[in-house]
Input
Amino acid sequence: MAFYRSHVLVCVDPECLAKGAHEIVDALQDEFVAQGLINEIQVLETSRIGGCSGGPEMMVYPEGIHYHGMTADDIPFLVEEHFLKGRIVERFREVVKPVVDEELGPLRPKEVRIVLRNCGQIDPNNIEDYLAIDGYQALGKALFEMTPETVIDEVINSGLRGRGGAGFPAGKKWSITRQVADSPKYMVCNADEGDPGAFMNRRVLEGDPHSVIEGMIIGAYAIGASYGYIYCRAEYPVAVETLNIAIEQAREFGFLGNNIFGTDFKFDLEVRVGAGAFVCGEETALMASIMGKRGEPTPRPPFPSVKGVWGKPSNNNNVETYSNIPQILTKGAAWYSSMGTERSKGTKTFAVGGNVVKPGLIEVPMGITLREIIFEVAGGIKDGKKFKAVQTGGPMGGCLTEEHLDLPLDYEALSQAGSMMGSGGLVVMDESSCMVDIARFFMDFTQAESCGKCTPCRVGTRRLLELLQKICDGLGEEGDIEKLEHLCHEVSRNSLCGLGQGAPNPVLSTLKHFRHEYEAHIYEKRCPAKVCRPLIRFEIQAPACTGCTVCARNCPVEAISGERRQAHYIDPETCIHCGICMQVCNFNAIAVES
Amino acid sequence: MIALVVESEVTAIVQDAIDKHGKKRDALIPILSEVNSKLGYIPAEAFHEIRRQMHDPSEQVYVAESQLYALASFYDMLSTKPRGEHVIKFCENAPCHVVGGKAVWDALKEKLELNNGETTPDSKWTLVTISCLGLCSVGPVLLIDDDMYGNVTVEQIPDILGRYE
Output
């Protein structure tokens, strides 16, 4: 490895790229060449140094100086000052220290990072960075010290379960695929992370791609596969590029290809890019898409472990599952299984969103309670409001309430409570969220993403959405709740794949825990959270109104009347509930009533 | 990008895409994606041309135009209708929605006088929604062609669009 006196890390995340990060890199290279420093200083591209809002961002090590907001034209000056004269350029120095990485900040209380351990710490585009922190040692250990069977035993003993959400034991799946007497066998990595708001896998792919690749190679050795596919969604262009660079470097270093580590074992890998279809996250649909077909699911059995890509045994795990593997082999099953509950071991990454103080990416040990996640790791509810519900498992998951806050993070415990572990979306809602509206929102998503192959999902989700829309519009009638429940059970029981089977979950869980809100919408024509527009009234509170007329002038339907300097009045018949008056009022004089 | 596509150009683009991704059934999605990104959409001539160049029973490669239509209509990122010179893809998902996405979306629609999926009469802009880009911590997020914009506010829209004038 070459030795450099200084390293300059330039952030090439999408936001920084948009602000000219590539031009900065080019300008730095040019200037270092011009000044004869190119053999002393290395320029690295990395993902996310700071908030990126002041981008482009760069870090200079070993000093640890963070610069931001410069343009390519500033680089000659900056190089001269900092690298030749040794003076820090205060003008570009990031003064707010330490810079908060909105996605992945410093380790939070109760966090344990295994999957995210390298993200932001190494250059994802340089395999040597990964090697320097013992990368590919686990693969070496597997090839020289272990048989495929002992690798599988180690993974089984670690207790690692599928992190895509369903939680099937990873080692057991490997063992099944290994035992099928057919060849060739394929390794598949599901990198089609599509749940809105869930971006854990993107961060791993962009920040530590080799951990996923190493996990797949180890898996290939264990099950006897010779080829693999990483199916990555097209919405993640940076992840696709990072993966392709990583695969190319792994080939150069002999970790992919024939005679890996000089043994007879051969394995190679390619990235397949989706073209925008949420359902492709379902494993049979994903494999159809790899084969160049419409991403429509097929009934299971046969499971992919028996008949997958090209009708051959295919082992499918997701990004997070694979990236755990090298650590499990290096540190041992006992270490991994020391974390968690009886049946759920290790850690889980989450993208925490919604009304919390500190949203972002977290990795917590299994067994931690939802209360600890929300109130300690994520800093509690924003603006001093009250916790209302937490949605886990994305659009196919469910809403849990106050009474579930002390549940441990555990696959079975979450399913029993009516939700699921899911791939890692976690949306926290405060008292200002209407649960009927939330159910409608998720149904709107699944309805649009239903692939249309099977009738229960195609028609059922549409009918469910219509019913929910009707209730939100204040047109709900007696019997609608029962209709919803009945339809939910039918859709869930008869749909072909996980999308349809899970689609009713947000409705069922909100019906179970927040039935009174549905009843208020239907029988009292009232939205308790004051969200559903047709069910709310805007009223001007006379004492606070100064009669400035700004609301009346902005009302699109002229529903507001009143003399200047006198309290105004909104005509409820004409009002279309658009809320513009409330936004423009400078005196907080407009209240929402339900 | 171009409303009327010259036939010889389609032939060349299809040829390039096939050379790059291979004459195999499983290369169809990459080939269609490539044609889509080069032309902005996939014209009927391209389906015809892909079939003509790929269908080869002697090599057991079977490609029908209906299959190609089936693929293009299934995947959101493939379009069979001409698109504007620049395509604005707006993330409409919950995390962006709750941090002001709706206001940005409404402002875009108003400014361009477009609804979701429409193209301006001068073929300059197409406005569509896109599924979650995973950039939730910098929402609202939009993509113009391949350029990403995060933390977008209503006030920034004229400036952002102005970059493409």
About this structure: The interface with chain B takes residues 14-15, 17-18, 52-53, 102-103, 193-199, 202, 234-237, 272-278, 289-296, 351, 353-354, 359-360, 427, 441, 445, 449, 451 of chain A (CB under 8 Å).
